[in-house]
Design goal:
Two copies of one chain form a homodimer. By secondary structure, the first copy, chain A, is an alpha/beta fold. Chain A has eleven helices and 14 strands. Chain A has helices spanning 48-57, 62-76, 162-169, 173-181, 196-209, 222-231, 245-255, 274-278, 296-305, 322-332, 334-343, and strands spanning 12-14, 25-26, 37-46, 88-97, 112-115, 124-133, 138-147, 153-155, 187-191, 214-219, 236-239, 261-266, 281-289, 311-314. In chain A, strands 6-7-3-4-5-8 form a six-stranded antiparallel β-sheet. Chain A has a six-stranded parallel β-sheet with strand order 11-10-9-12-13-14. In chain A, helix 5 links the parallel strand 9 and strand 10. Chain A is elongated, with a radius of gyration of 22 Å. The two termini of chain A are 42 Å apart. Chains A and B meet through helix 7, helix 9 and strand 14 of A and helix 7, helix 9 and strand 14 of B.
């Protein structure tokens, strides 16, 4: 066999010149290239926007959902919902590793992995759908998938339930980015500190700032603030309305001896919180937006409007070793693990 | 008098707790606080979206536009178009500097300046509208405006026409950001290198990378590529379709000895160019989005989809000394100055 393109463009059938994700049809031939990995797939975790659409179209009929999934994969060579454009992730076991990759990656035939790139770009061939569990958007199949050289994945650990690992991997980018951004002695604001990624980021930030630093976690009400205080993930907890930047600024200044913070991390899931992230940060500081509800123009014009010379970073879902870094946090902190088990893994 | 809030919240009348930009009404009292600057205004350069709306509403009648502008400023205390939400900038002379700022800023009474924060947040009182020039969205007035402590402005230079200075100041953030991002020896890709901000960024990048570095400018066709080559602002010029990431990657690799670049700077004005900016950059490299057409989610999910560990930065319209840095480029390069005089200042 020969070497394929790192990003999988060699498998794009239509239209030529695009990447596998925007492509309409890709090849799901199970003969792999020298820099590909073949997976025996056990489960597809369909993205929730996609699964809702499939359920609705099928009027809730599981048989019809099954037929539709088979049709999509037959037609496109990947499980990308044609209406929502989205995919999901898969769980499976490594069947074969292309010879160019064998000594370069820490993966062996037989390892159980979760793919961390979207199904919307992953070549997939379904032999048979075994079962569909509509409550958790999960499809049990017999089939094969291919990971490209650029594809990212995580070995599923032996010491925790798959559901727990998946819940953590879902937000893996955030704590890994915090690890590389936050320096010892920094004063850090976490907006949305009580949510899934907010908790991970708070815990990681507190580790990174050390004894001289400070982590300030924002919660939206008393109940959530009490919950956050009990975790001890932050040095200070503030209650503030993220839609009111002046309120956020004032509460941060109160909690930080009247000084602006070095880094603000936005882990919120609601729009219009750009200025609340920018305003409490000192000049030459960093604002890190992990929220998918962030507006590029509101951030850019917001900072200009108040004359703030801050570096604003678009949260990248991928960082080197992000899966390992994140799973290690669950191993390290019983509190974090217990919260994730209770709230996010089912 | 007393000290006001750095961001001008002390002048917000309605609704309380907001910043001056989103506020419906702010105070345009011309008695200044100790950390404010009073300006004798000569011209308002109304933002083009706003002026188009005013023209349309008035059916092109200059008298009606005049009445409408007076009404808006009377009601809101600032020239913020209630339909578009946008403002513009002003040109005037410094009338008075609050005592807390006098020794802190390089500005003297009588200096001619352009405000670089939006009129949508600047307290303004119009005594009289002298003339309206609808062709260049310009309103000549007698009136006063106030700049807050956080307000940014530029002294208009003696050695160039106001129109030339304004054209350059309009994109001042970009080259100033390039100056701080790009390091000696870097290989840099400029997408949209033939446009207003692209030319500035190319010129600045070539200065910064020095002899060991390389600047690769992208143009969309032969004509534009020829124009770019003649400027000598880039070491290499490529012709590539920014809506085709693979095409961009291939052309960059050809021009860069098969290696990805350290930094990509997006100066385009069209949407869907996120992947074309991310793909040609090496791991741990930087992608800088200056384009207002950038989609936050497309950038975030795009990088994740191809497993790229790059730092993606939201272009901030403001950086310390950005006006000075940018005007100095026009003084330094006759070629740049001539292009700006011919193409952008009228």
């Amino acid at each position: 066999m020969v070497k394929g393109n790192k990003y999988g463009t060699h498998r794009v059938i239509e239209p030529k010149g695009t990447l596998p994700q925007p492509a309409l049809k890709i090849s799901n031939d199970t003969v792999i290239f020298d820099n590909e990995i073949l997976i025996d797939v056990d489960y597809l975790n369909i993205d929730s926007a996609s699964f809702s659409q499939l359920k609705e179209e099928a009027g809730g009929d599981v048989g019809k959902i099954k037929t539709k999934i088979l049709e999509i994969v037959q037609e496109r060579g990947k499980m990308q919902n044609p209406v929502t454009g989205s995919g999901g992730m898969l769980i499976g076991r490594v069947k074969m590793i292309g010879k160019d990759l064998r000594d370069k990656i820490e993966l062996n035939v037989g390892d159980k992995i979760a793919s961390l790139v979207s199904l919307s770009l992953t070549p997939l061939k379904i032999e048979k759908i075994i079962a569909i569990n509509p409550d958790i958007d999960r499809v049990e199949i017999k089939g094969k998938a291919i990971l490209f050289e650029s594809g990212i994945y995580a070995k599923l650990p032996e010491d925790m339930a798959n559901t727990l690992a998946l819940a953590a991997l879902d937000v893996a980018g955030a704590p890994a980015q915090v690890k590389s951004l936050v320096k010892e002695g920094d004063h850090v604001l976490i907006l949305g500190a009580t949510g899934k990624s907010g908790l991970m980021c708070s815990y990681m930030a507190k580790k990174m700032v050390g004894k001289r630093g400070k982590v300030i976690g924002q919660a939206r009400n008393e109940t959530r603030a009490d919950f956050l205080k009990k975790t001890k993930f932050c040095h200070e907890t503030i209650i503030a309305d993220v839609l009111n930047p002046i309120n956020v600024l004032e509460e941060v200044l109160k909690a930080n001896d009247g000084v602006e913070v070095d880094v603000a991390i936005n882990c919120l899931s609601i729009p219009n919180s750009e200025l609340s992230s920018i305003l409490p940060v000192k000049d030459n500081g960093i604002v890190y937006f992990f929220s998918m509800a962030t507006s590029f123009t509101k951030a850019a014009l917001g900072a200009e409007g108040i004359g703030k010379d801050v570096t604003m970073i678009i949260g990248n879902g991928y960082t080197k070793n992000h899966a390992q870094i994140t799973l290690d946090l669950l191993r390290e902190s019983d509190t974090l693990r217990r919260i994730f088990e209770e709230k996010y893994s089912n």
